[in-house]
Amino acid sequence: MGGISIIIESDDFDKVFKRLKPIFDFEPSELMTGIASLGESQTRRRISEEKTAPDGSAWKPNNEGTSILLQTGQHLLQSIASEASSDMAEWGATWEHAHVHQDGMTIVPKNAKKLIFKIGGKTVGASKVTIPARPFVGLSSDNEAEIEELIIDVLGGSLQ
Questions:
Q1: pTM of this prediction?
Q2: Helix, strand, or coil (residue 46)
């Protein structure tokens, strides 16, 4: 069971309640927008710079040796978006093929015996292609710490 407990040991309840009033009157929309924006930023950083899954494991290199998840342009990176309201913060990718990279997938031909594609300018055929999972959406322990700092900053500012 989670939650917040406040123990008050004071003879001056008026002073205590005056100090706690900002928490009771707190409007969470701004905080949730901050969390969503931070999550979006963390995800963009993971794709463009860190090249690791939220658990810290390195992504498997691609066959061409190009920048992972940026090989075919900026589709994935440009699709990273966030949304927030007073009771939720979410972020992720809107690109229709993002799930392939997040979860991995095996692709087989639909109407032919082989898939035909190019690797390093060379035409290659294969009966199937397995794209390894390269999770980019999620929270690392560092990401969680950044979000906790934001929450403390916002709520701590309410108590000043």
A1: 0.76
A2: helix
